[in-house]
Amino acid sequence: GQNIDQPTEMTATEGAIVQINCTYQTSGFNGLFWYQQHAGEAPTFLSYNVLDGLEEKGRFSSFLSRSKGYSYLLLKELQMKDSASYLCAVGAYNTDKLIFGTGTRLQVFP
Amino acid sequence: EAQVTQNPRYLITVTGKKLTVTCSQNMNHEYMSWYRQDPGLGLRQIYYSMNVEVTDKGDVPEGYKVSRKEKRNFPLILESPSPNQTSLYFCASSLSTREAPYEQYFGPGTRLTVT
Questions:
Q1: A69 in contact with B, Cβ within 8 Å
Q2: A90, A98, A99, A104: best mutation site toward chain B, by most B Cβ within 10 Å?
Q3: Per-residue pLDDT tens for B101-113?
Q4: Is the pLDDT assigned to residue B98 strictly greater than 80?
Q5: A98 closest CB neighbour out of B50, B90, B104
Q6: What average pLDDT does the segment A14-32 reach?
Q7: Of A49, A45, A43, A96, nearest to A70 (Cα)?
C-alpha cells in the first residue's frame, strides 16, 4: 500500500523561508507531486519530482530522495498569499491512482 | 481557455434524492477522476477513468456511480445520497497513463450538503 505523512500545520513570517516535509511509503514509486490549495478552492499544481535532487521554480523548490522516501517543498521570500494548504501526492507504477497526503496548512504572518 | 468545469458549484439536498454532478474538460485528456475532500482526511479518490468506457473504483467508491460515455465528460452520480456524503467534491483530468503520471487539473469544486 501507500502511506504519506506531512505536518498538519506550520506558521512562518512574511519574507522568511519555510520547508514543508513529506515522507512516503510506496511500492513502485513513480513520481511525487506538490499542489497548493487555498481555502475553498481547487488544488493547483506546483511541482513534480521523479528523480533525486532539487527542482527549482521561482520562489518554490522541491526536493526528492527516493532512497529515503522523502521530499520537501521549500518556499522562499514568503508572501501573505502563500498562506494555503500544500498537498504532497505520490504515484506508483502499475496503478492509475495518485495518493494524496492530508496536506500541510501554512499560515504566513506579517 | 483550458479548464475543468463542474456543476453545480453548491448543492443542498435531502437524503435519498438522486443527484448528478457534472464534470467536463476541454483539454482532450484521457484520464479523469473524482475526489472528495473532508477535514483531516485530505483528498480521497472516489472513481477514475483511464479512457472512454473504462472506469475503476478509487479508495472510497461506496454510494457513488460514474460513467464515461464521452472523452470530455465524467459525471458523478449519487443514487441515494446520505448525510455522510456531505463533502467538497473535485473532478480532475490529466494526461496520465499507467506508465507515467502527469499533473492533474482540478475543477472548481462542488460543495454538497445532504440533510
A1: no
A2: A98
A3: 788 999 999 999 9
A4: no
A5: B104
A6: 93
A7: A49
φ and ψ at A2, to 5 degrees? -125, 145
Kindly report, residue by residue over B61-88, the tens digit of the pLDDT. Answer: 999 999 999 999 999 999 999 999 999 9
B42 vs A43: CB contact, 8 Å cut-off? no
Q: CA-CA distance, B109 to B6, in Å (whole number)?
A: 7
Chain centroid to Cα B3, Å, comes to: 15
Question: For residue B49, how many C-alpha atoms fall within 13 Å in the half-sphere facing its CB?
Answer: 26
Angle, vertex CA A97, rays to CA A94 and CA A103, nearest 5: 135
Say which of A95, A97, A102 has its CB closest to residue B41. A102
Give the C-alpha separation, B82 to B114, whole Å.
Answer: 6
The mean pLDDT of chain A is: 93
Q: Enter the C-alpha cell of residue B6.
A: 463542474
Residue window 88-107, chain A: list those with CB within 8 Å of chain B.
89, 91, 93-103
